[in-house]
Amino acid sequence: MRQSKLFGKTIKEAAKDEISLNARLLNRGGFVEKLMSGVYSYLPLGLRVLDKIKNIVREEMNATGAMEVLMPTLQPKELWDETGRWEGMKDVMFQFKGRGDSDIGLGCTHEEVITDLVRKRIFSYKELPVSLYQIQDKFRNEPRAKSGLLRGREFWMKDMYSFHTTESDFEKYYDEVKLSYLQLFKRCGLDAKIVEASGGIFTEKFSHEFQVFCETGEDTIHYCRECDFAQNIEICEENVGDKCPKCGGEVFESKGIEVGNIFPLETKYSGAMNACFTDKNGERKPMIMGCYGLGPSRIMGTIVEVSHDDKGIIWPKEVAPFAVHLVALGNDEKVFSSADQLYDKLVSAGMEVLYDDREESAGIKLGDSDLLGIPMRIVISNRTLEKNSAEIKMRAEENAELVELDKLLETIKE
RNA sequence: CGGGCUGUAGCGCAGUUGGUAGCGCGCAUCGUUCGGGACGAUGAGGCCGGAGGUUCGAGUCCUCUCAGCCCGACCA
């Protein structure tokens, strides 16, 4: 991609009413643009990042044996009346009239729809277990949208639902998804910790949150550094400094951003909606369910919160909008023709390259490059051409190295 | 939903006791620059968030309203 053609250029000063760091950097870099409170457009750069995150999520969910589906955003009141949640969720769900007197809601979660889908298609224990997920825009009329991409009214969510014949089969899958989540967060450059939390309206049991420790998080976690004990303070009985109930170590506190949350649903929805299967003995039983949520757009914001410096974003390799930022410095024909050639070579070698071919000053280009946070930067200038070399810099590493142009491709491919 | 702050050019801001709107950045054109947000010149760009009121006259005063941000409450 030639930067001169890229829609969404950088801006120097962020809008003053964007206080949150992720929103400021993403807005300045031309990744997102706010339309209204909690509602953002994704520009080409931002969409690339979002898509990379979604694809990581896809790969990891598929690896658990789950299958991707896509359910509607428009949903009829009648379905939600089966669980009583049309009334129960009217504060958070956008609800309005369709044709005639029909009531329609915008999807804020999909338990009702998925349960309806599965009860229409699955009848026997032979067809279970099954796990289905979707990656979709969700709508919630948040009382207070805030913190840029972290809490929006329209946002991206991956929601997965699994259906099982037995509690033990469910538990086995639930644990598998836990590991899968840890793996996908790691690939996104996030160090997420599993935290026990309230089951909310879903379950009497604990749910499990995936928390990224970060000062700007809105959750507070009590945890032990010696073992894996960690609880959201909304359910935690231990205070800071108390003994860890699991290993006797000390309890610490941290703020956290909840990037994922998984729940044992048991038969709450299958029971209410009559989603049953026939077992070996010919008995009809409600399916045992789990649900597994995470937010790709919130992950994107979280990455920025935890991975940046004073000059801009530092994208982890797997989610970066481009692998390489090729920057031509100095508006000199020789520089541009060399950079053009290198760009063509890199692209034909399959590299994802953003090529800054703009006629801008060195300061602007390098500053923008810092802001955009692409992991590897290759600089071509008169200075480097004299040495028949390019300067390669990894983001967040101070020292740049000079590499001969001819050997550059091999260097990058490693 | 309570509390606080803010709405003036695309963005950041100034605008005095009420007298008819300005600066910086950005944008356009020209010239000089070219490894850390260079410089000069010229130019375009405004329903002062909206409605009502006070006044000879409102960006400025009053009332209402809408929007955004922050702190709470909420968070399926």
Please provide a written account of the structure.
The chain is α+β, with helices and mostly antiparallel strands. It has 2 domains: 3-71 and 110-309, BirA Bifunctional Protein, domain 2, CATH 3.30.930; 322-413, 3-Layer(aba) Sandwich (Rossmann fold). It has 12 helices and 23 strands. The protein has helices at 21-28, 44-63, 77-81, 85-88, 111-121, 167-187, 268-273, 296-306, 333-348, 362-372, 382-386, 405-413; strands at 32-36, 39-42, 67-68, 74-76, 95-97, 103-106, 130-139, 154-164, 192-197, 207-213, 219-224, 230-232, 251-266, 276-278, 284-286, 288-294, 308-309, 312-313, 324-328, 353-356, 376-380, 389-394, 401-404. The strands form 6 sheets. Strands 3, 7, 8, 9, 10, 11, 12, 13 and 16 form a 9-stranded mixed sheet that branches. It has a 5-stranded mixed sheet with strand order 20-19-21-22-23, with helices on both faces. A hairpin with a 5-residue loop joins β11 (219-224) and β12 (230-232). It is elongated. The mean pLDDT is 93. It binds one RNA strand of 76 nucleotides through residues 11-20, 34, 36-37, 85, 88-89, 91-93, 108-109, 111, 140, 142-144, 146, 151, 200-202, 218, 329-332, 359-368, 370, 379, 381-384, 391.
Strand and helix map with partners:
Layout: H1 21-28, E1 32-36, E2 39-42, H2 44-63, E3 67-68, E4 74-76, H3 77-81, H4 85-88, E5 95-97, E6 103-106, H5 111-121, E7 130-139, E8 154-164, H6 167-187, E9 192-197, E10 207-213, E11 219-224, E12 230-232, E13 251-266, H7 268-273, E14 276-278, E15 284-286, E16 288-294, H8 296-306, E17 308-309, E18 312-313, E19 324-328, H9 333-348, E20 353-356, H10 362-372, E21 376-380, H11 382-386, E22 389-394, E23 401-404, H12 405-413
The chain binds one RNA strand of 76 nucleotides through residues 11-20, 34, 36-37, 85, 88-89, 91-93, 108-109, 111, 140, 142-144, 146, 151, 200-202, 218, 329-332, 359-368, 370, 379, 381-384, 391.
